Amino acid sequence: MRIRNLAYILLIITFKLSAQEFNIELTNGKHQLSFDNLRIDSIIDARIEKKYVGYVNVSTPAFFYSSLADYLKSLLSNQNYTRNKTGNLIIRVNKLLIYDQLSMNSQSTNIEMNLSFIEKIDNKYYEVFQSAVNHMKNTNYASKSIYNQNIITAFETSINQYLERKNSGIINNNKINITVLSENPLANKSEYQINKIQKFRKGIYYSFYDFRDYNIDTLSYFTVIYQDKKNRTGEASIREVNDDTLKEIWGFSDGEQNYCRLGSSFYPLIHEDSLFSVNNYPKETTNSIYPVFGSFGLIGAVAGSLFASANDGETGTFRSNTHEKYSLNLNNEKFYPSNEPSELKIQGNIVIISTQFNKADSKLEVYVDGNKKCDLTKATYYKYDFNSTKKEFEICIVFNGEKFCYTSKPLLFNSEMILLIIKGNKVVIEKVNMYIKSDLISAIEKNKIKKVN
Question: Which of 210, 230, 293, 338 has the most CB atoms around it within 10 Å of its CB?
Answer without folding.
Answer: 293
